[in-house]
Design brief:
The protein is mainly β and 809 residues long. The protein has 7 helices and 47 strands. The chain has one domain: TonB-dependent receptor, beta-barrel domain (Maltoporin, Chain A), CATH 2.40.170. The strands form 9 sheets. The protein has a 22-stranded antiparallel beta barrel. The longest helix is centred in the first third of the chain and has 17 residues. The two termini are 43 Å apart. Pfam families: Plug (PF07715), TonB_dep_Rec_b-barrel (PF00593). InterPro entries: Beta-barrel_TonB (IPR000531), Beta-barrel_TonB_sf (IPR036942), Plug_dom (IPR012910), Plug_dom_sf (IPR037066), TonB-dep_rcpt-like (IPR039426). Its main location: membrane. Belongs to the TonB-dependent receptor family.
């Protein structure tokens, strides 16, 4: 274990909570239990739910037991279990498409997403996104290279609802995230036994089972257990089982006179194919398939490349893909010490592995003859070109592509503890708290390992000998490792916060808060020797210029990191009526450099000043939430892998935008949900290899929107629903230099469900029904334009259908 947790802190917090719980007499629920009741309401079958459009209870972004969404003085979205079912997200990140202000690229598969928030500049992954389970961060660093937190959590039927807060109060609570904080609220038990079993299948061969059951363990104790298991080759079928695994979640809640205690645990063991850019033909904003390669379903990996013996002699299996094998458990404890005084304890522990293995293309396809010149210099010719598997001559006019075997292994661990006291006196509520997090990552990377393949689906390995007799390949490999990591990192965060809320009049409420946080990181890294000819023979080109770990070690380039920052916020909320309100907020948020940035020598701590104006309307006819925001972002260091090596970009950005989400219910059974985001986001004092100030922040469109009409009708003992979603993503740029254009696209999804006798539910959903080619990423491993014609890009997944049947009791 890379770090040693304070055992008193870890072993003492939960038993203390349980001891107080057992000593207290039975009594009514407090505010935290009311929030749990709301979670149970959201988890109930649709026929048992009341209209909660004005009464959704939000926990994330609040100091204590939650607040009505209509009363929240910040931008927040709540997605209940029924909405999740109809959205049928292909991954955890895919669900975030429905959150305004968020750009989520889920085209990398069920893992490996890129998530961007409100114009915050980022090179990828999910740098300004924190995922929570039951109000506690799953893993405190929001992102590490080759690890974003949606990789550590799966959406399944044990989720009651998902809450997502942007900006606002997020800079104060939990890990102090100034971007996006997403909280997954678990289903819990009630005094009535209930549950469901659901089997689903897709037209691309996935089979999945979901189940959960809950009920009483006693007069004041309830429990829930459930999870899922799934397997398939994936939409982009690599000719082997690429997607496989499951998750199991359980919790127990005990209610007592002055509060409650919730104990939960989750085990995830799941991996999926890491989907990467593929060849696509681009002519301006017009996209089409590269000859012989389906942009919607094609993949470069195949049976022949699944197992590769890299130059070190180690065998790498592409079926390992990207995923996680982790355990996450925690305790939530709420206790009313005295009238007006409450204590809240949130603790979580997580440990496991999060690995990434993939076949990473280096550049666009070209003929083998052109490749010889581009790779080995002017005048280079082909002496012989043959298939590795089966032999046979290959013409020099054959389209080829170089792709590397990248392997990243991470052992991660974390402990998080958040303890707060709430003092309520009359119309004033003061909350003070302390936050502690300890986390580590042991990394083993091996990048590069390029091999020469035919540029087609399930590319075949090629052996190349140059005309002058030099041997360019070994079993298809044209190079060894170009970058290695053997590192152990440890981090600690200590924070103290105070938030005060005062209800001046029944209509007017103000709040303010401050957070102090200290961030420390230590690291130990093995050094690389670059440019090594591992066999000493200059004519065997495949192992020249290799990066080799040399057995010497060093610390972080600029030494162990330690820094402190203050964050603060002030807000005002005014209710014109119980159904119409408005808020204004200013916040200063901070982020800290984590392991990979510090390894690359980046010690900048970004800060963001955020200004928000919001309008909230909740009536039986209309629910609408609109937020105008402005962000001023400074001090960012972005690391990109260019030519297999980290390249750092420094600067900031300024963003003005508006988010809107709402629902119209004009007649019984018919509703239209709407969501839209406009972003005017530009770099400011930002440098890559050039000054890109004034250019559009990469990978975030100016416009994106979605509209979802739904019609439900009861007839006899059955209830039918038809729903569809049309979404639009505007023009973006894959790179900060604004050279790689990602054209705008529309996407159409739809579904129909039938519930019979309130127990059996049949559902069919279709994704990307028009089979549109929509690009989410160009080639992030080069700087500037890719040129015209054939490019590398990562398209959204092609058309697919999911069929499910469920039984509820």
């Amino acid at each position: 274990m890379a770090f040693q947790i304070n055992r008193t802190l870890l072993l003492g917090a939960a038993p203390l909570a349980l001891a107080i719980a057992c000593a207290a007499p039975a009594h009514a629920q407090d505010a935290a239990q009311a929030a749990a009741s709301a979670a149970d309401q959201a988890a109930a079958p649709a026929d048992e739910q009341i209209d909660t459009s004005t009464d959704d209870i939000i926990v994330v972004g609040t100091a204590g037991g939650g607040t009505r969404r209509q009363d929240a003085a910040f931008a927040v979205t709540s997605i209940n279990a029924e909405d999740i079912s109809r959205l049928a997200p292909s991954s955890t990140a895919d669900l975030l498409h429905s959150v305004p202000g968020v750009s989520a690229e889920s085209s990398g598969g069920q893992n490996g997403a890129n998530i961007f928030v409100r114009g915050f500049p980022s090179g990828g992954d999910a740098e300004f996104v924190t995922l929570q389970s039951s109000g506690v961060p799953i893993f405190p660093p929001p992102t590490l290279s080759f690890l974003e937190n949606t990789q550590l959590f799966r959406i399944d039927d044990t989720i009651a609802r998902v809450e997502a807060v942007r900006g606002g109060t997020g800079a104060l609570f939990s890990s102090g995230q100034p971007g996006l904080t997403v909280n997954f609220v678990q289903r819990e038990g009630s005094q009535t036994a209930k549950g469901s079993v659901r089997i689903s299948a897709t037209d691309f061969g996935e089979v999945r089972g979901d189940a959960w059951v809950s009920g009483p363990l006693g007069a004041n104790t309830t429990a829930m257990i459930g999870g899922y298991y799934a397997q398939s080759n994936g939409i982009r079928d690599p000719q082997f089982r690429a997607e496989k695994g499951g998750q199991i979640t359980a919790n127990i809640r005990h209610d007592f006179g002055q509060g409650s205690v919730l104990v939960y645990g989750r085990y995830l063991n799941d991996h999926g194919q890491w989907l990467l850019p593929v060849p696509v033909a681009q002519n301006g904003n017009s996209l089409s398939d590269f000859p012989g390669f389906d942009a919607q379903t094609g993949v470069l990996a195949g049976r022949e490349t699944r197992f590769s013996t890299i130059n070190t002699g180690r065998v790498v299996d592409l079926a390992d893909g990207r995923g996680a094998k982790i355990f996450n458990g925690g305790v939530n404890f709420d206790y009313e010490i005295a009238d007006g005084l409450k204590i809240r304890e949130r603790a979580s522990y997580m440990k496991g592995s999060a690995d990434t293995v993939g076949l990473v293309p280096d550049g666009a396809p070209m003929t083998a003859a052109d490749y010889a010149v581009a790779k080995y210099g002017a005048g280079s010719t082909i002496g012989s070109l043959t298939y590795v598997d089966g032999g046979g001559a290959v013409p020099g006019s054959t389209q080829v592509i170089q792709a590397g075997i990248w392997e990243v292994r991470k052992q991660i661990e974390s402990f998080v503890n958040d303890l707060s006291l709430e003092f309520k006196s009359g119309d004033n509520t003061l909350t003070v708290g302390g936050y502690f997090a300890a986390y580590s990552s042991d990394d083993r990377w091996n990048l590069g390992n390029g091999q020469l393949l035919t540029a087609e689906e399930h590319g075949r390995r090629l052996n190349l000998t140059l005309g002058d007799g030099r041997q360019a390949t070994r079993a298809g490999f044209v190079q060894g490792a170009t970058f290695n990591v053997n590192a152990q990192y440890d981090g600690r965060d200590y924070a103290a916060y105070a938030v005060d809320e005062y209800q001046i009049t029944p209509e007017l409420r103000i709040d303010g808060g401050i957070r102090w946080q200290r961030h420390t990181v230590t690291g130990r890294l093995e050094n690389n020797s670059f440019g090594v000819d591992t066999d000493g023979n200059p004519n065997t080109l495949y192992n020249n210029g290799t990066a080799v770990l040399n057995g010497t070690f060093s610390g972080l380039p600029k030494g162990d990191y330690s820094g402190s920052k203050l964050s603060w916020t002030a807000g005002i909320n005014y209710d014109f009526s119980s159904q119409v309100g408005a808020f204004a907020r200013y916040s200063r948020g901070n982020s800290f450099p984590f392991f990979d940035a510090l390894r690359d020598g980046v010690t900048i701590a970004p800060k963001v000043d955020s200004y928000e104006l919001g309008l909230k309307v909740s009536t039986p006819l209309v629910s609408a939430y609109a937020t105008l925001f402005h962000n001023d972002f400074t001090g960012l260091g972005v690391s990109r892998i260019i030519n297999n090596l980290p390249v750092i970009s420094i600067g900031g950005a300024r963003t003005t935008g508006i988010e809107f989400e709402g629902s119209i219910r004009p007649v019984q059974g018919f509703s239209i949900d709407l969501g839209a985001t406009y972003l005017d986001s530009k770099y400011r004092n930002f440098f890559t290899n050039i000054d890109v100030s004034g250019l559009q922040v990469q990978r975030q469109p100016k416009w994106q929107w979605r509209v979802t009409p739904t019609y439900e009708h009861d007839f006899g003992g059955a209830k039918a629903a038809v729903f569809t979603t049309l979404s639009y993503i505007g023009d973006r740029f894959s790179d900060p230099e604004n050279k790689q254009v990602l054209p705008k696209y529309y996407k159409l999804d739809a579904g129909v469900s039938l519930t019979v006798s309130e127990k059996i539910k049949l559902q069919v959903t279709g994704d990307n029904l028009t089979n549109r080619i929509g690009l989410t990423e160009g080639n992030p491993r080069i700087i500037g334009a890719q040129g015209s014609g054939t490019i590398l890009a990562r398209p959204i997944l092609g058309r697919s259908f999911r069929f499910s049947v469920g039984y509820s009791f």
